[in-house]
């Protein structure tokens, strides 16, 4: 018997090893360093990274979005759903116990009974029984099927938490980007009003010269056209300001009519610039990469479950209690009842259902492996692009500020020469348009720089921290993900 038991145990363990698929690797080799990163010690984003821009109004908006965002609220609900699924999936690992209490009373009808004196009487037969039992059943998780189901649910719960981190970072970044776009539209509107004032001032000069005969009607008409063009450029900027303000309402989860923003700090904003570390560090901070990793681990656990479903299952059942015709005798030893049973079930024919489920789970794992690789590549590409964008827009803003200063100087000289009559209106118009374009370009490139900084924070995982997530297998960004279930006899 002992030899037979050891042989069965060895065969069972061999079967467990056969159930677990080989853990796949992403097949990607990480570069030694990020190409666009500057040398030096890495500085990761602060959990409240948006405070680095020095805009108290932005701080308040992000704090409100963290509480009111419908996307974040939905992601939190999905985490609760996943936690509940873990409890559901873990239940088969424990026995099922039910209490059954039953009391029966019955009457079978009247019966004629003859006495010794010859008299006939009618009696009613009454039956009674009382029963209290506890029934328990338990499936031996010999092939690790139930364990694999629990592992898949746990990895799904981890993925839900990582997805919540991604939604949170995306919402924070969207609030910052929309706020900056609103400030840029506000700044462009102020610049456009300045341009309009310059155009009207030049029109007055041309009209004065026309009055004294030193300018023509064509000169007046040309400058009047410039004034009209500058006036026509104002409504789109007002629309952009209002549209971005309303977009904030969606992110904050409240009606647009309640959004009141001061703005007016576009030129005063600081532009923080964190420095990333190694590529593996970047991936370890990205919740979207971690979510893809957890989803792959869950899929691999589902493969174990599907394979185990094709093997025999052993069910243990038992019940015990007391039964008696009278309530007062339920506690007597002679009223005790019990039964024990063990059964083995081997699937024989299911119309291809079990094999189809296994093949579907294997295909799903391949899909999620491709998604995992894509998440790694996208994370590195996002970081490289954000680093390049921030560096180039920073340099571009410096050069554009010089261009604006030169254009303002050129316009001042041209205006003075026009008043003196040493140049014609065409020269002034060219100089004036160059100034308008330079001012507009400076606002646009400054917005691009702010958005690039937000993009870098987002690419580096923002201020997301996974310290509040329950411990899980640490795979590393490119190591082989856990295959989930272990074989439990």
Q: Averaging pLDDT over every residue, what do you get?
A: 81
Count structural domains: 1
Largest sheet: 4 strands, antiparallel
| SS element count, helices | 10
Strand content: 5-15%
* Shape descriptor: elongated
The quaternary structure here is: single chain
What is the CA-atom radius of gyration, in angstroms? 39 Å
Q: Name the CATH superfamily classification.
A: Outer membrane efflux proteins (OEP)
Q: What is the CATH first-level class name?
A: Mainly Alpha
**Largest sheet, order of strands side by side?**
1-2-3-4
Q: Level of helix content? A: 55-70%
Q: What fold name goes in the CATH topology slot?
A: Outer membrane efflux proteins (OEP)
Number of strands: 4
Which helices and strands, and how do they pair?
Elements (H helix, E strand, L loop, with lengths): L1 H18 L36 H13 L1 H21 L5 E19 L5 E21 L4 H68 L4 H16 L1 H19 L26 H7 L1 H22 L4 E12 L11 E10 L7 H68 L4 H35 L30
Antiparallel strand pairs: 1-2, 2-3, 3-4
Helix pairs in contact: 2-4, 3-4, 4-5, 4-6, 4-8, 4-10, 8-9, 9-10
């Amino acid at each position: 018997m002992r030899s037979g038991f050891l042989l069965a145990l060895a065969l069972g363990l061999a079967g467990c090893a056969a159930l677990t698929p080989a853990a796949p690797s992403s097949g990607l080799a990480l570069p030694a360093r990020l190409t666009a990163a500057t040398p030096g010690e890495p500085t990761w984003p602060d959990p409240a990274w948006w405070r680095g821009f020095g805009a108290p109004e932005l701080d308040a908006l992000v704090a409100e979005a963290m509480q009111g965002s419908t996307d974040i609220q939905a992601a939190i609900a999905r985490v609760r759903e996943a936690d509940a699924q873990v409890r559901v999936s873990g239940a088969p690992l424990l026995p099922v116990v039910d209490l059954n209490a039953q009391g029966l009373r019955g009457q079978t009808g009247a019966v004629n009974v003859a006495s010794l004196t010859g008299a006939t009487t009618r009696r009613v037969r009454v039956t009674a029984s009382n029963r209290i039992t506890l029934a328990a059943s338990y499936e031996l998780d010999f092939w690790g099927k139930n364990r694999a189901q629990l592992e898949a649910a746990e990895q799904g719960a981890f993925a839900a938490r990582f997805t919540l981190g991604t939604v949170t970072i995306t919402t924070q970044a969207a609030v910052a980007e929309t706020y900056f776009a609103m400030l840029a539209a506000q700044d462009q509107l102020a610049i456009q009003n300045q341009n309009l004032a310059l155009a009207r001032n030049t029109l007055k000069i041309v009209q004065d010269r026309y009055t004294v005969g030193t300018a023509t009607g064509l000169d007046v008409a040309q400058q009047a056209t410039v004034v009209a063009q500058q006036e026509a450029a104002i409504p789109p900027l007002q629309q952009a300001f209002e549209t971005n303000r309303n977009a904030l309402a969606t992110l904050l989860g409240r009606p647009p009519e309640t959004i009141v923003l001061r703005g007016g700090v576009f030129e005063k904003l600081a532009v923080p610039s964190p420095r990333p570390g190694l590529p593996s560090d970047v991936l370890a901070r990205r919740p979207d990469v971690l979510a893809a990793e957890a989803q792959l681990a869950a899929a691999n656990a589902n493969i174990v479950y599907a394979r185990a479903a094709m093997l025999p299952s052993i069910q243990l059942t038992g019940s015990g209690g007391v039964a008696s015709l009278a309530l007062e005798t339920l506690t007597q030893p002679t009223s005790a009842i019990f039964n024990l049973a063990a059964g083995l079930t081997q699937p024989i024919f299911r119309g291809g259902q079990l094999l189809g489920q296994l093949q579907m789970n294997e295909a799903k794992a391949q899909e999620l492996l491709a998604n995992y690789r894509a998440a790694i590549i996208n994370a590195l590409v996002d970081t490289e692009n954000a680093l390049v964008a921030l560096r180039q827009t920073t340099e571009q803003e410096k050069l554009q500020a010089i261009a604006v200063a030169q254009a303002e100087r050129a316009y001042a000289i041209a205006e003075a020469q026009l008043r003196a009559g040493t140049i014609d209106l065409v020269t002034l118009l060219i100089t004036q348009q160059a100034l308008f374009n330079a001012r507009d370009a400076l606002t646009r490139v400054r917005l691009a720089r702010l958005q690039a900084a937000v993009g870098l924070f987002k690419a580096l995982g923002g201020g997301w921290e996974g310290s509040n997530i329950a411990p899980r297998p640490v795979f590393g960004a490119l190591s082989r993900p856990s295959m989930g279930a272990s074989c439990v006899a």
